[in-house]
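Hi R.,

Here's the chain you asked about this morning:
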Amino acid sequence: MSLSAAKQYLSFPHLEPGLRADLEPLVKAAEGGDAKAIAELEDRFFEPLAFGTGGLRGFMAAGLRRMNQPNVRRTTMALATVAQHHAPGKKVAVVGYDTRINSEVFAQESAAVLAAAGYQVFLGSRPLPTPFLCFAMKALGSTCGVIITASHNPKEYNGFKAYNDLGGQVVDPWDAEIEAHMATLPVVPVPPVVPEGRISPIPVEVENAYLALGLGLLQNPKPFTPARILYTPFHGTGVAFVPALFEKAGIPLTVSPSQGIQDGTFPTAPRPNPEELAAYASPLREAEAMAADVVLANDPDADRIGVVAKRDGAWELMSGNDLAALTLDYLCSGKGRQGAVVSTVVTSDFMAEVARHHGLPVVWTLTGFKNIAVCMDRLDQLGEAYAFGAEESYGMLLPPSLRDKDGVTAALVVAEMAGHYKAKGQTLFEAVEALMARVGTFHNRLVNLEDPRPGGAKRFAEAMGRIRTAGLATFGGEKVVSWEDFQTGLWHGEGRSETILDRPDHRAIALPIPFSNALKFRLESGAFAAFRPSGTEPKLKVYLQSRTDTALLDRMEAEARTLLGL
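And here is the predicted structure, written out as tokens:
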């Protein structure tokens, strides 16, 4: 079946020459009985790329299940149609891209499709951060948007993030309708003919407005002593705005000499993920040489932020949970924040406890900033302000006008925060400890599990089924007091079951949390363990929280691996 699908793919005369050259040898080898070639074709053609938490994402190569120009064309054609259905009357689109291999090619392809569909397209003229492009969508009143990025994945990947008319990533019903419309299109659509004058660069005034937005977030604290900051964009887009933003703010910043160079091969960080300390090896050597206080990092599309600082003389990566909680407390203790705080169901309770400490309500949602954006839209409908939103995976959003996480403006505020605590004689880790002394102790751990072999996603799905039906009474040596199954939308505990709500503390306006294949078990000490497989890749994440000590995290991790058969 996959061999015939590959041959059909090759039969399209307008298939790009590079893709044809990639696929033809595989087909020839498969016809000769080569088992590896047959398996590779099966992986490339057994199903199309599906929309997950971040849209399309996959290896770059020829095939239905790969990132390439035909898939970008099909997806953009579907987005153009669906956007007109949901937001008729205007035809404006913003398209941007990161520093990855083929990102500019894919962005130009997407822009051409939208222009041919009658949209006025604003196309980034260079690799630009995802948060800026989201800002541009709002500023230019776009009907839809496209960002070509695979975030923090290795160089072999690329991706396609689709945005709606509110400037957030597409969610139901847009995503389902895009996939349905894609199914009606040829697997290799004919390249579009672009009308004259339909594609133009994003105006420089929009860039200036974004910088002004970031400067408006400064708290101007007393006391303040500039921290020695080393910044790394992991060879990505953050260098386009972060140094300029810091210069305008008057906060000193040193850009990593090794990782400040835009390069889609990520030569010093094969996995350019701010969640992994190994990615910081090169800038940490530079930080040591300059006696830096803090290393700030953005992933390649600059929507995430990572912080490395010293604890007891050794460089340590701060968790996204701790950074979000500390930043929220800093904002509330500075100029103050009004409105609701939005968190995800796998994020630590630390941030929620800080919100309650400052008298702010908390809204819960599923993983992914596209879901946080939906909550923000709901707050707008209720006439309620948005104060802050974050998730454990190093994503924060400070400006209420945006609808996706923003590592650029967050970097500025975190740097200022580091200077404030430096003036008080505290490191960022000491500031976290002081905050926990006020609101309670939270230890967290993320366990990333991958199974790249064929069928890996299926095996993780089967493991989730085993956990779901195991009837866990204890976990990590503690009693399970309640558990949530987000696939059924039900909370179970105290001998009863009820709907999982996004605002359990404010039931009058609460809504059910959308369904998702995730499980969360709460223990008697306040600890929890949550399980969530990826929507697009053969990966599964286990999120652990302890309110007592890290030994409990060890026990929970060991039991989780046993349950998963790993």
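One quick note: The chain has 17 helices and 23 strands.

Cheers,
M.
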